[in-house]
């Protein structure tokens, strides 16, 4: 939506001081609840977790972690979202572009992947728009919500060629 | 002196003086011992006195006084002994006594510069301005080559309203200065400029406006504070009815700073616009040059009415809601005295919200689409509006709706707490405020607000824990906040303790606030000398005026009010130990736990007091001059405050400054009445009643009526 004037979207760091804002966001955005370890880890990942500010108000966030599997590094998006009233204003795109930037700058990531509930069409379309593909279906991935199945969405990254 | 010393001992004595000046106290005592161990001079007054003075700097106060008094008795004609005694008194802040000592010293040595200077500082500190002038005059005659005597003498005359003399002194002083050195030294240039402005200030106070304006013109080049020059000239033009000139000056001042409200007031008084439209022109002209300036847009709201008001306020609200300015309501709040405007603003806000909810525009025929934050701030504003017009339930509903959409906005939680407070739900208010501060624990303002709300809900230990997140480690909260003179906290605690019948604690806090004011008045001491050196004379004189009526400040008013109420209560119902009501945490403890807690508190207080003693003794060793000697209550048990025989006397002490400085407030006289009633002094009661009547507002009428009835019954 480029036609609204005077919109600023900025990303900010997550610290001990504002971590509760992240908790509130996740509480309102996602049907899944995250435990204390999740938030403890978030404080350690640096640029991999960010708050999104829309006109100086905290409305969204992204939290990633590094996932190593068989010696291959992947970037896993744990949460990415924003409050309902602020969707379709480009915030998700800014958050995802940030993830791409991090992946590129840190190099050596084979892919970026995440889980999406199979009925979340708007999310699936969003990620497909950015080049993600459904590569797997995990049955009963979610414990307490219906449908409990999840798609695994993945975007292959071209790894840096060693000189 | 009646005990002159032979050359050998004289040298030793001079060494003692030098050691004192250089703070080498051990050496000074050594030399003193050398003189005094000689049986011929064992009772030499001046040596004894100096020994005492040196000992005072090492913390041995009692011994010091003994020695000095002994020395003085042995040599009543010694100006040194009197001077030393004066210094001792001064270090204990007994300024009246110190002045007496200095005067006696001067009887034996009229031209002692050191003593004269010391005396003058004390005199201005105690506001003995006549004495100050005398002393300054003496200094001027002794040292006309130095700067300070001239300035001091001028200031003395100024304070005594002898304006012509003050001005002339400064003129003469100006002549004695070489007039070209200042061209090469920036500091001199500044000091000379300040001197000229001070002179001008004196002329203005004297009402000699023509002379003042000519003085400004002659010295235009030498006055570097161009802003003050312009402001003075503008005011003088107004007083001399040179209105066209004044207009030009105030216009140029507005161009310098379009946010200074007083310039607009002055412009209006000079241009004298005849109607709203002409008034508005003044502000619109400034807006045209400074489109981003806030004042020319918002100030007209105070005098516009009807459709013009509506148009302007609508425009401002749109701008600021779009920009997301949280204090929009705060800046419009002064307008809420006029019902018409309240209604107008409310309707505009409501319309905005409806239209934004429907299609994200301020009004249906707008072209521009607004981001969701505009609706958020519009709702926030309207909730504050509802709160102000006392529609608390509606406000809460709106806030809760907004929180569903944007739970991360801290301002919403703070507002919710405020509305709950207005509804009387102090516990709910704390919960909201706590949520607010937890979202941003680096924000000190919210932290303070949270502590304040906790205190109001009588959760004082929780408040301390919250405040501790920002205070220094290893220092107790109370101590730290006392050091920082954080009076809002102390007053809030006093009120809370008082409400819970913990009178001792309440009184302790009130006394602490009173002590802060005493300290602040004390603090001016160093500036008497400093400001004369730095030539910041206008600020100095204004500071003196400020200190003169310091206790008019609302913090003192609040503390005094709380204290007087408690003392009146203690008079009506004398204190019984065991009356104390514990705070929330304590009332849930068992007796055994409570006893343990009390013992722990007593131990902590004893430790604290001992540590303070140690610290003060260390300070004595290190800094000889700063001898802080507040009498410490070794066991500041709260009972000490309550079990006094004459609470009304204490109440009167708190009341006195209120009658001097807060005589426009109803409460002052209401409290005076209550004290007088219990003392049975009918005339004082009547006087308080009459004064109360003069200043009573509608909300005070019930209390006033009660007073009338009680007086009639007497």
TrEMBL record, chain A:
<dbReference type="Pfam" id="PF00583">
    <property type="entry name" value="Acetyltransf_1"/>
</dbReference>
<comment type="similarity">
    <text>Belongs to the acetyltransferase family. GNAT subfamily.</text>
</comment>
<dbReference type="InterPro" id="IPR000182">
    <property type="entry name" value="GNAT_dom"/>
</dbReference>
<keyword id="KW-0012">Acyltransferase</keyword>
<dbReference type="InterPro" id="IPR016181">
    <property type="entry name" value="Acyl_CoA_acyltransferase"/>
</dbReference>
<keyword id="KW-0808">Transferase</keyword>
<dbReference type="InterPro" id="IPR051556">
    <property type="entry name" value="N-term/lysine_N-AcTrnsfr"/>
</dbReference>
<dbReference type="GO" id="GO:0120518">
    <property type="term" value="F:protein N-terminal-methionine acetyltransferase activity"/>
</dbReference>
<keyword id="KW-0963">Cytoplasm</keyword>
<dbReference type="GO" id="GO:0007064">
    <property type="term" value="P:mitotic sister chromatid cohesion"/>
</dbReference>
<dbReference type="GO" id="GO:0001756">
    <property type="term" value="P:somitogenesis"/>
</dbReference>
<feature type="domain" description="N-acetyltransferase">
    <location>
        <begin position="9"/>
        <end position="158"/>
    </location>
</feature>
<protein>
    <recommendedName>
        <fullName>N-alpha-acetyltransferase 50</fullName>
        <ecNumber>2.3.1.258</ecNumber>
    </recommendedName>
</protein>
<dbReference type="GO" id="GO:0031415">
    <property type="term" value="C:NatA complex"/>
</dbReference>
TrEMBL record, chain B:
<feature type="region of interest" description="Disordered">
    <location>
        <begin position="577"/>
        <end position="629"/>
    </location>
</feature>
<dbReference type="InterPro" id="IPR011990">
    <property type="entry name" value="TPR-like_helical_dom_sf"/>
</dbReference>
<keyword id="KW-0802">TPR repeat</keyword>
<dbReference type="Pfam" id="PF12569">
    <property type="entry name" value="NatA_aux_su"/>
</dbReference>
<dbReference type="GO" id="GO:0010698">
    <property type="term" value="F:acetyltransferase activator activity"/>
</dbReference>
<feature type="compositionally biased region" description="Basic and acidic residues">
    <location>
        <begin position="577"/>
        <end position="587"/>
    </location>
</feature>
<feature type="repeat" description="TPR">
    <location>
        <begin position="79"/>
        <end position="112"/>
    </location>
</feature>
<feature type="compositionally biased region" description="Basic residues">
    <location>
        <begin position="597"/>
        <end position="606"/>
    </location>
</feature>
<dbReference type="InterPro" id="IPR019734">
    <property type="entry name" value="TPR_rpt"/>
</dbReference>
<dbReference type="GO" id="GO:0031415">
    <property type="term" value="C:NatA complex"/>
</dbReference>
<dbReference type="Pfam" id="PF13181">
    <property type="entry name" value="TPR_8"/>
</dbReference>
<feature type="compositionally biased region" description="Basic and acidic residues">
    <location>
        <begin position="607"/>
        <end position="629"/>
    </location>
</feature>
<protein>
    <recommendedName>
        <fullName>N-alpha-acetyltransferase 15, NatA auxiliary subunit</fullName>
    </recommendedName>
</protein>
<dbReference type="InterPro" id="IPR021183">
    <property type="entry name" value="NatA_aux_su"/>
</dbReference>
<dbReference type="GO" id="GO:0005737">
    <property type="term" value="C:cytoplasm"/>
</dbReference>
<keyword id="KW-0677">Repeat</keyword>
């Amino acid at each position: 939506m480029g036609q609204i004037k005077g919109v600023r979207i900025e990303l900010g760091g997550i610290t001990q001081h504002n971590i509760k804002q992240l908790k509130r966001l996740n509480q309102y955005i996602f049907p899944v609840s995250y435990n204390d370890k999740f938030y403890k880890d978030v404080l350690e990942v640096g640029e991999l977790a960010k708050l999104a500010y829309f006109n100086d108000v905290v409305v969204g966030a992204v939290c990633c972690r590094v996932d190593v599997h068989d010696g291959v590094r992947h970037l896993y998006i744990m949460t990415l979202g924003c409050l309902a009233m602020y969707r379709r204003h480009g915030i998700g795109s800014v958050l995802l572009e940030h993830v791409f930037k991090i992946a590129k700058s840190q190099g050596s990531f084979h892919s970026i992947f995440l889980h999406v509930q199979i009925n979340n069409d708007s999310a699936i379309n969003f990620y497909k728009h950015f080049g993600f593909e459904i590569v797997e279906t995990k049955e009963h991935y979610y414990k307490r919500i219906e449908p409990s199945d999840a798609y695994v969405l993945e975007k292959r990254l071209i790894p840096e060629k060693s000189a | 002196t009646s005990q002159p010393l032979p050359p050998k001992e004289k040298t030793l004595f001079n060494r003692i003086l030098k050691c004192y000046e250089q703070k080498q106290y051990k050496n000074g005592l050594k030399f003193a011992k050398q003189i005094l161990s000689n049986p011929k001079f064992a009772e030499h007054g001046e040596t004894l006195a100096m020994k005492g003075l040196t000992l005072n700097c090492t913390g041995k106060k009692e011994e010091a006084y003994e020695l000095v008094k002994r020395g003085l008795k042995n040599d009543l004609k010694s100006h040194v002994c009197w001077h030393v005694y004066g210094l001792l008194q001064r270090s204990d802040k007994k300024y009246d006594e110190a002045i007496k000592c200095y005067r006696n010293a001067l009887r034996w040595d009229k031209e002692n510069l050191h003593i004269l200077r010391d005396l003058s500082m004390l005199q201005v500190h105690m506001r003995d301005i006549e004495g100050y002038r005398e002393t300054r005059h003496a200094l001027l005659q002794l040292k006309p080559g130095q700067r300070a005597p001239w300035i001091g003498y001028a200031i003395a005359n100024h304070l005594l309203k002898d304006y012509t003399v003050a001005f002339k002194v400064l003129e003469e002083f100006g002549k004695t200065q070489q007039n070209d050195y200042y061209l090469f030294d920036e500091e001199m240039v500044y000091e000379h400029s300040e001197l000229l402005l001070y002179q001008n200030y004196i002329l203005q106070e004297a009402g000699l406006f023509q002379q003042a304006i000519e003085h400004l013109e002659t010295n235009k080049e030498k006055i570097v504070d161009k802003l003050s020059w312009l402001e003075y000239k503008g005011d003088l033009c107004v007083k001399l009815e040179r209105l066209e000139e004044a207009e030009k000056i105030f216009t140029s001042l507005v161009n310098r700073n379009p946010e200074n409200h007083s310039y607009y007031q002055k412009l209006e008084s000079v241009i004298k616009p005849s109607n709203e439209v002409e008034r508005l022109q003044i502000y619109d002209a400034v807006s045209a040059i400074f489109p981003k300036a806030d004042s020319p847009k918002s100030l007209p709201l105070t005098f516009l009415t009807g459709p013009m008001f509506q148009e302007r306020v609508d425009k401002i609200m749109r701008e600021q809601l779009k920009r997301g300015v949280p204090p929009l309501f705060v800046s419009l709040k002064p307008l809420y005295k006029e019902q018409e405007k309240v209604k107008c603003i409310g309707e505009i806000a409501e319309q905005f919200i409806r239209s934004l909810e429907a299609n994200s525009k301020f009004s249906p025929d707008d072209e521009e689409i607004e981001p969701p934050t505009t609706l958020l701030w519009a709702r926030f504003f309207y909730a504050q509006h509802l709160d102000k017009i006392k529609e608390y339930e509606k406000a809460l509903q709106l806030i809760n709706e907004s929180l569903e959409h944007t739970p991360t906005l801290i301002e919403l939680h703070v507002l919710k707490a405020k509305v709950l407070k207005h509804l009387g739900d102090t516990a709910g208010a704390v919960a909201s405020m706590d949520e607010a501060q937890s979202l941003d624990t680096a924000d000190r303002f919210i932290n303070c607000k949270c502590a304040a709300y906790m205190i109001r809900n009588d959760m004082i230990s929780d408040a301390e824990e919250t405040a501790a997140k920002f205070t220094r480690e290893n220092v107790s909260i109370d101590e730290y906040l006392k050091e920082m003179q954080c009076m809002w906290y102390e007053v809030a605690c006093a009120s809370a303790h008082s409400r819970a019948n913990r009178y001792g604690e309440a009184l302790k806090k009130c006394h602490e606030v009173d002590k802060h004011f005493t300290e602040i008045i004390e603090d001016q001491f160093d500036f008497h000398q400093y400001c004369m050196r730095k030539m910041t004379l206008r600020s100095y004189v204004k500071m003196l005026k400020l200190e003169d009526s310091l206790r008019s400040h609302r913090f003192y008013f609040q503390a005094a009010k709380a204290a007087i109420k408690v003392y009146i209560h203690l008079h009506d119902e004398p204190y019984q130990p065991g009356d104390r009501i514990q705070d929330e945490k304590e009332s849930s403890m068992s007796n055994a736990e409570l006893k343990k807690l009390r013992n722990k508190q007593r131990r902590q207080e004893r430790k604290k007091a001992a540590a303070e003693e140690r610290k003060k003794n260390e300070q004595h060793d290190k800094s000889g001059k700063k001898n802080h000697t507040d009498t410490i209550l070794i066991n500041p048990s709260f009972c000490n405050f309550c079990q006094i025989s004459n609470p009304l006397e204490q109440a009167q002490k708190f009341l006195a400054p209120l009658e001097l400085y807060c005589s426009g407030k109803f409460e002052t006289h209401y409290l005076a009445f209550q004290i007088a009633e219990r003392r049975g002094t009918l005339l004082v009661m009547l006087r308080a009643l009459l004064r109360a009547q003069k200043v009573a507002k509608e909300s005070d009428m019930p209390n006033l009526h009660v007073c009338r009835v009680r007086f009639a019954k007497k």
